[in-house]
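ingest -> validate -> predict -> emit
validate: passed (alphabet ok, no gaps, 151 aa)
predict: started
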Amino acid sequence: MEEPMPGKALGTVLVVDDVAANLDITVRSLEREGIPCRIATGGAECLEVVDREPIDLILLDLGMPVMDGWATLAALRQRPAGRNIPVILFTCHDHLSNRERAMAEGLVDFLPRPVSRARLVETVRTHLGARARARALEALDRRLEQEATCH
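emit:
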């Protein structure tokens, strides 16, 4: 299995938050480390981005107006393009019930704000790396299946 070359991005992160300052800080922190980002200022925009371009990981705020993080997650999981994208709940709503629900809903992690830049980058890299390895294994499985049916 191929490991990404140094300096090569593991994937693209979609940062979903209704607060411009949060978006700016998060995106700048990740892009400074070579992690490409897209932004969405709410749930509906998140769904639009996922439908039109490949996204490898979503950092999702919980407390957004109109469509909160839970509603966004439910709608995301109904879409073919969004069904398997790993999601990290990234919010200042650090209640035990939110952490428990996040894990029950299949989110890959929970990052309470404020979070250090180092922890944010480490967590995102960890999950992007896991996603890249899973995709590489899936591609290898498909190739082996094709080879097996050809013989």
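The chain has five helices and five strands.
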